[in-house]
Design a protein that fits this description.
By secondary structure, this protein is an alpha/beta fold. Helix content is 35%, strand content 14%. A nine-stranded mixed sheet has the order 6-5-4-3-2-1-8-9-10. A two-stranded antiparallel sheet has the order 7-11. Mean pLDDT is 85; it is low at 191-196 and 337-348.
């Protein structure tokens, strides 16, 4: 049975299964990006050993997990990241890895089992390095080129920091050159590790809405977001400093879209704590699986306390898992559009 039919079956039956899992093997990072939500230096995380992560991956496979994204922190800070990649692939689970490019070219042989990489890059060298640190543009582009030279599909993940069209045009050029697609993040406050809510470095709500409207009018297949998703974020009923709408509050003009976090998607942090959603990793954890018993922890997990959020990827996933015709049609059109030709065929 395909994944779509499994999710449809479980929705009808009211079942829960962790099909999509984000694991954070480390909270360490080599960068200090200006807009990052991760106050990682103040976190008391105890990193689980590779042996414990392998037990967790085995248990996730038994529970039906089909996709694991390795994130962090910067996952390449772990010297044993290849062990996790190999275990995930050995269990028949799709493996995705999120990175800022750190050590990727030097260790690319360790990542050949990865099904897709997401590499963070925010625009031109000037724009990117202003937010992420000097030299980070070159680091990301080298990683991008290295991954594509090995045939690993890549998403260039850009955070919309300002000078939107200039940054986007440059990322489009890179996506065309290396045959990648593009993902986006809205700049917004996140919950930091010590419970504070950090604010965005600039109030850019109207400019971001104008840019989203531009993307709707000038859609490009390298940006795999259907029109309904771009319109949903353009019409967000608050400013972008409010990155989610709590349960019990009005969605305004937005269509209600049930979230799969805590039902079909979970996050596991470096110490084994489980959360329904990575955006709420800095609240009190609801369970821990450091002993490898994911099922026990999963039974105790609750869904996040929100109705909608400003995350492109997860909202797209929620739309697909809702099985509503308009959302599915938009997703189908995007998937067809991003069936790019091999790099050697381009320009013929």
């Amino acid at each position: 049975m395909g994944l779509g039919l499994r999710i449809l079956r479980d929705r009808i039956l009211g079942a829960r299964r962790p099909y999509f899992v984000w694991i954070m093997p480390t909270s360490r990072c080599n960068l200090r990006c200006r807009y990052c939500f991760g106050d990682f230096g103040n976190r008391p995380d105890r990193e689980l050993t590779a042996e414990t992560w392998e037990k967790i991956i085995d248990e996730l496979a038994r529970l039906g997990t089909r996709h694991i994204s390795i994130t962090g922190g910067e996952p390449m800070m772990r010297k044993d990241i290849s062990r996790l990649v190999r275990r995930i692939r050995a269990r028949g689970i799709e493996c995705l890895l999120n990175s800022n490019g750190f050590q990727v070219p030097e260790r690319i042989a360790e990542l050949e089992g990865v099904d897709m990489m997401s590499i963070s890059l925010d625009g031109t060298r000037e724009i990117n390095d202003a937010y992420r640190g000097e030299g980070t543009y070159e680091q990301a582009v080298r990683a991008l080129a290295s991954a594509r030279s090995r045939g690993i599909p890549v998403q260039i993940l850009m955070t919309l920091t300002g000078r939107f069209q200039e940054a986007y045009r440059h990322i489009l050029e890179l996506a065309e050159k290396y045959d990648c697609f593009i993902g986006m993040n809205i700049l917004r406050p996140r919950l930091s590790a010590d419970g504070r809510e950090g604010m965005s470095v600039e109030n850019y709500t109207q400019q971001a809405r104008d840019f989203l409207d531009y993307l709707i009018r000038h859609r490009h297949p390298r940006l795999p977001y259907p029109a309904w998703l771009l319109k949903r974020f353009r019409d967000w009923p608050r400013d972008y400093e409010h990155c989610y709408i709590p349960k019990g509050e009005s969605l305004g003009p937005l269509t209600d879209l049930p979230c799969i976090s805590g039902r079909f998607m979970i996050t596991i942090d470096p110490s084994g704590d489980l959360f329904g959603c990575a955006r709420h990793c800095y609240r009190n954890p609801l369970a821990n699986c450091a002993d490898g018993d994911v099922e026990r922890a999963w039974r105790n997990l609750e869904s996040p306390p929100c109705r909608a959020c400003l995350d492109f990827g997860w909202t797209l996933l929620n739309g697909a898992c809702s099985f509503r015709p308009a959302f599915l049609w938009g997703l189908f059109r995007v998937m067809k559009a991003k069936e790019f030709r091999p790099a050697e065929d381009r320009g013929r």
